[in-house]
């Protein structure tokens, strides 16, 4: 007989992993044993991807080789190229990207192979291809040719260059790079769990990642960063209007996106970094409005509900200050989380068992069939 169900699988250990770990009571996050406070701002996103997918930080030569491999892996195949204009016309960014990511398998030489070596090659390609797909989406919907990636820039710098058309300063590149590091992995969050469930049927990497994209999109998960920005932008007036807005939302029983977390009982350690980055980038952009609104909102939500901001909260004002369009915020999350998802799929395939939990039946029992004419 199975244990009683845990609503939303809270506190259920659904997998073993050596990719990341969280101490929710003390607000700590670790990637492969490294404290996020120790590595954020010190390792590049490329190093972080290497760490998550291979378990150790790279030596300089490993990193150089890995960066070369990423640069060579950006190309989008003909199937996805052909599909791109159609989905851009008819679908919002996360819908379009979910479909485009799925289509990448059609031209992937390792599509049908789920060996560790093939999974690693596909993981590298997916990490390199997704930022290009987002940039291509943005160019296509604005009816302009895509900006070519600059070989001197890393993933973070290139993305900003391709999206905004402006060459980012070293400091702006560093800050966005740190954002990508901060979002890279987070144990058994909903999208990673989805990816692992799919991988555990011995399905392929692209199927698992397509499912993860679908799970990330929801506003209770990665979609919250876009919702936060829409909330901030909807508040009219000066910073004092935030108090009234928050109280009205909470007393109407509505959730404020960007607050609360299933695991953290204290501040999300990623929010600590993003808050500082939001202030610095707002200064650089010469517009502190959304940073100050965010600070006030954080204070009022804490005073009224005792809730802390999660990773999505300050990400909103950070991405806005970087000039990223609001509906690309969740795609940016996906660009980063691709590193964690792919690492988990590799880990699942390396030591697989089908994931098939039990359920607790709550419907009626012992019913008797009656003919349709008599129901
Ligand atoms: C990358 C990420 O995915 S981070 C999370 C991004 N999502 C969001 O920011 C959406 C807003 N937050 C939430 O909906 C939740 O806090 C979640 C989904 C993150 C966590 O959910 P759960 O652990 O299931 O908590 P649950 O939704 O049951 O909330 C517990 C209580 O706190 C309240 N609560 C939780 N979050 C919020 C919020 N953001 N605003 C207002 N109230 C909240 C709930 O209403 C509930 O109150 P009740 O017990 O009086 O009914
Ligand atoms: O862990 C979670 O449930 C959500 C989260 O913060 C993330 O995926 O980064």
Walk me through this protein's architecture.
- The longest helix is centred in the middle third of the chain and has 26 residues.
- The radius of gyration is 22 Å and the shape is globular.
- With 375 residues, it is mostly helical.
- Strands 1-2-3 form a three-stranded antiparallel β-sheet.
- Helices cover 56% and strands 3% of the residues.
- The protein starts with 19 loop residues before the first strand and ends in a 25-residue tail after the last helix.
- The chain folds into two domains: 218 residues, Citrate Synthase, domain 1 (Orthogonal Bundle), CATH 1.10.580; 98 residues, Cytochrome p450-Terp, domain 2 (Orthogonal Bundle).
- It is built from 16 helices and three strands.
- The site of oxaloacetate ion has 6 residues, from loops.
- Oxaloacetate ion binds next to loops.
**Topology, number of strands:** 3
User: Total helix count?
Assistant: 16
Strand-and-helix sequence, N→C?
A: EEEHHHHHHHHHHHHHHHH
Reported CATH architecture of the largest domain: Orthogonal Bundle
Pathway: Carbohydrate metabolism; tricarboxylic acid cycle
GO molecular function: citrate synthase activity
Family: Belongs to the citrate synthase family.
Catalytic activity: oxaloacetate + acetyl-CoA + H2O = citrate + CoA + H(+)
What is shown here, in short?
With 375 residues, the chain is mainly α.
């Amino acid at each position: 007989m199975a244990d009683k169900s845990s609503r939303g699988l809270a506190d259920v250990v659904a997998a073993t992993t050596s990719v990341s770990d969280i101490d929710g009571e003390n607000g700590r996050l670790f990637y492969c044993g490294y404290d996020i406070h120790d590595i954020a701002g010190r390792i590049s996103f490329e190093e972080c991807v290497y760490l998550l997918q291979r378990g150790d930080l790279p030596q300089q030569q490993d990193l150089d080789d890995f960066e070369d491999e990423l640069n060579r892996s950006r190309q989008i195949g003909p199937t996805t190229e052909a599909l791109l204009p159609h989905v851009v016309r008819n679908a919002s960014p996360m819908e379009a990207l979910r479909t485009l990511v799925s289509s990448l398998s059609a031209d992937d030489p390792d599509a049908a192979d789920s060996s560790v070596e093939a999974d690693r090659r596909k993981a590298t390609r997916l990490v390199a291809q997704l930022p290009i797909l987002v940039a291509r989406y943005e160019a296509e919907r604005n009816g302009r040719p895509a900006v070519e990636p600059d070989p001197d820039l890393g993933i973070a710098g290139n993305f900003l260059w391709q999206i905004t058309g402006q060459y980012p300063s070293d400091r702006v590149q560093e800050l966005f790079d740190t954002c990508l590091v901060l979002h890279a992995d987070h144990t058994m969050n909903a999208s990673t769990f989805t990816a692992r469930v799919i991988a555990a049927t011995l399905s392929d990497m692209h199927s698992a990642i397509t499912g993860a994209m679908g799970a990330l999109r929801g506003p209770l998960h990665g979609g919250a960063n876009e919702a936060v920005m829409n909330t901030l932008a909807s508040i009219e007036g000066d910073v004092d209007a935030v108090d009234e807005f928050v109280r009205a939302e909470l007393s109407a029983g509505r959730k404020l996106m960007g607050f609360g977390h299933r695991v953290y009982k204290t501040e999300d350690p990623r929010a600590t970094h993003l808050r500082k980055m939001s202030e610095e980038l707002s200064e650089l952009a010469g517009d502190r409005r959304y940073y100050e609104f965010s600070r006030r909102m954080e204070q009022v939500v804490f005073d009224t509900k005792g809730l802390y901001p999660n990773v999505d909260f300050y990400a909103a004002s950070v991405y806005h200050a970087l000039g990223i369009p609001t509906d690309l915020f969740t795609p940016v999350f996906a660009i980063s989380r691709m590193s964690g998802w792919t690492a988990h799929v590799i880990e699942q395939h390396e030591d697989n068992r089908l994931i098939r939990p039990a359920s607790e039946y709550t419907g009626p029992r012992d019913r008797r069939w009656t003919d349709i004419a008599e129901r």
